[in-house]
Fold each of these.
Amino acid sequence: MQKPRFTRFDLIAIDDQEYRFHSQNHDSVLFERLDVSGAIESFSYDQILTLKSSRSWSYQRDYFRNPNTSSEAGRTLSRLASLKTSVLAKVTFRENYCQVVRELHSAGVLKLREDSLEPNRPMIQIEVNERETARQTIGKKLRGGDELPNRKLPCSRTILEHYREWRDAGYSIEALIPKTSTGKVDRKYIDIEKEEFLRKCVAHHASAGKRLPMARTIEHTFEKFDEENERRESLGLRPLGTVSRSTIVRRIQAMDPFYVTFQREGAEAARRQFSSSSGGLQTLAPMERIEIDDWYCDVRSLLADLSMTTAIPANLLEQIPKGNRWVCCAIDTATRCILGLRIAKAPSAAEALRLLSMVVSDKSDIARQLGCEKNWPQHGGICDIATDSHSGFQSDVFRAAISTLHGTKLTLPLGKSELRSSIERVFGSMVTGVIPFLPGRTGSNPQDRGDYDSDKHAVLDDNDLLYILIHWVVDHYHYAPHRGLGGDCPAGRWEKLTKERFVPECPDAFEKRTALGVPLERTLQKRGLEICGNFYRSDETVCHFKETLSPTLNIRLDPDDIGAVSVEINNRWFEARCEHGDLDGVSLEEWKAEHELILQRYKDVELLNRKTRRSAIAAIKARCDQAIAKRLIPGSTTDNTAGIDAVQNQLFHGRSYEPLPETVSFNGAGGPFGTPISPDPSTVPAAEQTTELTIEDESKTSEDDAIDWPDGPSSSGWNLEDE
């Protein structure tokens, strides 16, 4: 059994009782209650597993790490998740030119001064334009005359300010978010002369051979400012004034840490502290570092979803378009286990999010549905995500999703594949271990292919290719000796490390949906939020409908599970469930396909009855296990905003299902109209009984009949309110 790992910053809620992690061992986990000081409760790992499978479990990672954590209802996720598309694109553009300045400064091309940055602005603009074009045209084929999404650089002073903010924040993209909704930032500048003098004073902190504490450097800076002001007054010049203590601290923290260590402790200490091997960082725990990349598969396949190619005549088989698919893969570097695998038409933001969803999910049901002999349970909460800089994983929404899931995005330099050696080695293993046995292989180059006719031998479709690759990963790769693990197999190393160091807890369904779901906008109605014929509501949406004048809300929908959605209300996220409560585990693609069959019979009916809905849900769940693997191949029209909006407008426009009935009872205090007036018991024969007025049981209605409401009072007894 996989044992989760918690930290002191995590918030756990069980049946609305909030806990903070205290400690854990190999047998149990201790949680500290927040409402009673010092109260500790113990939970075994079996109990936690049972709670996680129910809806009484809630987990918020790094909740207490954020100093701005609020006690209000709802969750505050990453700041990037709530930004508008235009603002998010601007923040990403700022990070791009900050990265370019950092690379040029590291290479010694420029210095972090305006006079050094200004002559290099054309070079910076060209490099930023190339990165912006590559990032925003992912999966697109540019043609002559196409408009390129390039932006103009700000002035050199603004670039340096953004760079220093980005650097001081540990190279976090959130430091580049505009301070106001208009994108304008109100800053108070220090004049250039004072800034230069302050820089010289702060440089005393990195004196050679000295390890001065920060307090001594601050005191030294104040003394130098006092001496300079006295000298200027004696000469009749304008004094410099002074600076605050916090300003000096920020300037010390902004100094190059490598240079400070080099000056204070020597070259060897600096090299030992900041150097890294060409193979990347060494990881010790599962899910500590995940490498993600995509690979243009060396196999020509049929670009169609075919169930049996042997039944298709040869002349028709030759007319089916053929091409190469992309294989998107994620690997855990500590154990070399594959955490996700997808087949894609081209790298895109949607495919990147779906792959990230596999990383944080148990994939045993996929392996079981495809007939694998082994399970695929490797998953957990993310930490560091390493990708290259020119792939589908550089989109704005992917960056925001990683930040929302409490991960860190690591963009490695282009052309240095040794920094992503684990994922590159997996693709190499596919090339040597499975691709040579497949028909239609193209080889990695023309010399490798020779005179082999790839198109003539192409007979595999997307389902076949996915089936082969997942079988190879689950049944062969995970249990084959790995040289990088000292002869151990990836599955064995995963089991060993999970027992020693545990695995970061994966996000719950709400957080996963909010981070990785498809963004939508819907108008709040009386019944709730309508999505593809279903209405979603919660207590928060009901209150918001009464109070707001503009009920258009942002929504996140998981296309693989449409039982609930995430709704943003006043910058807080809440869960809204389907009013019928019967769509848990049902995918939007399956719901769409079944609704198309229903409309063939009831094409003129706008409000379909509940019995028809129950039959549709039963049919979907009967074949759910057969459709799991189809979610991993291209062809879905419901994994993006435009596709879902098109399905709603074309297939579900003007059609929905009748709401659940509410039982109306007039039985004393429980009734809505007060206490019923009953006849004197002494005057009523014992055989007569008072009958409550209720809506007829839905199971007694036929498929095409409406609900049969009682026309009048019962003959055996009735209440005054019945009239």
Amino acid sequence: MQAMKTLTAAAILMLAGNAMAAEVSVPQPRAGQWSSMVAILDHLDNHYLIKTGVYDDVSACSEAVQYMAGNVNKGGGFIWTNRDQSVIEFDATTDKAPNKAKVLELRCVLEPFSPELVKKY
């Protein structure tokens, strides 16, 4: 049932198009699930790892990452976020996400996941 809800949500997101802002809620993954993540440098050069979704299998996660990658490529390697990184947009057409962020990486990770320490020298 959870897989069906996840696939339905992914399909809705895919059909909504570029102009839609993706509200990023705090996912609560269980061990063995897959999470999609985006690594960004925000407009102040702060590094963030944002978990964007939780999936029951790697193929659903991979599809979500491929969808995001296509939109990031259209945006020249950038996304737009708000101050709290709770909204991700692929274009700068609204005021919901005024901060431009450079996308460093998109990936799927197997839960439980502990982010690595990233140092900028």
